[in-house]
Design brief:
It contains 6 helices and 6 strands, in the order βαββαβαβαβαα. The protein is an alpha/beta fold. It has one domain: Rossmann fold (3-Layer(aba) Sandwich).
């Protein structure tokens, strides 16, 4: 039986994000390790071990990261716009955990603002640690996608781009 890939990325920000890694660790501990292989990119957070982990790296190349988004069954991610873009581009169900200023994970709460704007997308699940059922909710979210075929989506809106270009670069 082929295992499903889980990709965990904290991004490349210089702020520590151990809180995210702790939440992910709790969620993946509920999974069957004969079904999943986990790749962890931990950035400037503290390296850790996790259930199902088969690959770990401080940072990954853009090409490797994009490959993981394309082939992952699901992703755990900070709420950076590049990560969200890749999740949507490859139709990859994604559990987002925004970096928060109150935990010194960023200088402001823009990731929380982004998360609140996109959390209703069916491919996105915002993990809320204040919800005592967040692990159960995570399991429900990933089960929705057990038998779904992924496809690459063209997210570039050429009509909008050309309209913006005509406005910005009037002859």
């Amino acid at each position: 039986m082929e295992k499903h890939l889980i990709y965990v990325t904290t991004g490349t920000c210089h702020f520590n994000f151990d809180r995210m890694l702790g939440l992910v660790k709790k969620c993946v501990s509920e999974l069957d390790n004969t079904t999943y292989d986990l790749t962890l990119q931990y950035g400037t957070s503290n390296e850790t071990t996790m259930h199902c982990m088969t690959e770990v790296s401080e940072f990954l190349s853009r090409e490797r990261s994009e490959f993981l988004y394309e082939h992952a069954k699901f992703v755990f991610s900070h709420c950076g716009i590049g990560s969200i873009y890749n999740s949507l581009k490859y139709s990859t169900p994604t559990i987002i955990i925004p970096r928060l200023e109150k935990y010194a994970e960023f200088s402001d709460d823009h990731q929380l603002q982004i998360a609140n704007e996109i959390k209703d997308n069916p491919l996105i699940f915002m993990l809320d640690e204040d919800n005592e059922n967040y692990i159960d909710d995570f399991i429900v979210f990933i089960k929705k996608f057990e038998n779904i075929q992924k496809c690459e989506v063209d997210l570039i809106n050429y009509e909008l781009a050309n309209k913006m270009k005509s406005i910005l670069y009037k002859d």
